[in-house]
Amino acid sequence: MGQLLKILGRTSSINVRKVLWTCQELAIDYDREDWGIGFNSTQNPEFLALNPNAQVPVIIDENGVLWESNTVCRYLVGKHGRSDLLPVEPTARARIEQWMDWQATELNPSWGYAFHALVRKNPAMQDPSAIAAGIKGWNEKMGLLEQQLNRTGAYVAGADFSLADVLIGLSVHRWRQAPMERPHYPAVAAYCKRLEQRPGFAQWASNDHS
């Protein structure tokens, strides 16, 4: 199906790993180049010409250039006709996409400060009160996910695995691995056990990529 997909981005980026796990679910071959922290700078004019936001991932295929990780994942699933991961029917699709958007706009912002302070050890993010607030907010968002998983009894949007689980599954793994106090959420723990059966989760949620 056209030229070989090219992915620009480092595997330590959770947003790059969303795309890589999606590719694994779709059995897509690709060529990946390291860009971002510790590698080729995203401030390089060559990269900025592709994504003026200077963020990874960026993909390039026969249709051109695309960025924003959730959009890239949607695009790839649609291009390869995987309606089991993201339905075409509007209501079923929206129920999955609302959780994809929640991951990007609610869950991920909640862990930004705490993650960079505790895991990345950013010296500019070591304010104890801000760390405590970050942990509290992160745990609260995960509590909302716990409630949703109790309702579905399986995956984020319902009984079946969907694209929302790729995005949220990586975020859940990051939460579980962060060196901090967290509540015990039984439904989240059971959810992770289900995800561990998928090769994409086993590979791209690995601590080697954190």
UniProtKB/TrEMBL annotation:
Q: Which PROSITE patterns does the UniProt entry name for this protein?
A: GST_CTER (PS50405), GST_NTER (PS50404)
Per the record, the domain of life is Bacteria
Where in this chain does the record put each GST N-terminal domain? 3-84
| Molecular functions (GO terms) | transferase activity
Q: Which residues form the GST C-terminal domain?
A: 89-210
**Secretion signal: which residues?**
none
> Keywords on this record?
Transferase
What Gene3D superfamilies would the database entry show? Answer: 1.20.1050.10, Glutaredoxin (3.40.30.10)
PANTHER family linked: DISULFIDE-BOND OXIDOREDUCTASE YFCG, GLUTATHIONE S-TRANSFERASE-RELATED
What family does the Swiss-Prot or TrEMBL record give for this protein? Belongs to the GST superfamily.
| Name the UniProt record assigns to this protein | Glutathione S-transferase
Query: Which species does this protein come from?
Result: Pseudomonas chlororaphis
State the organism's lineage. Answer: Bacteria, Pseudomonadati, Pseudomonadota, Gammaproteobacteria, Pseudomonadales
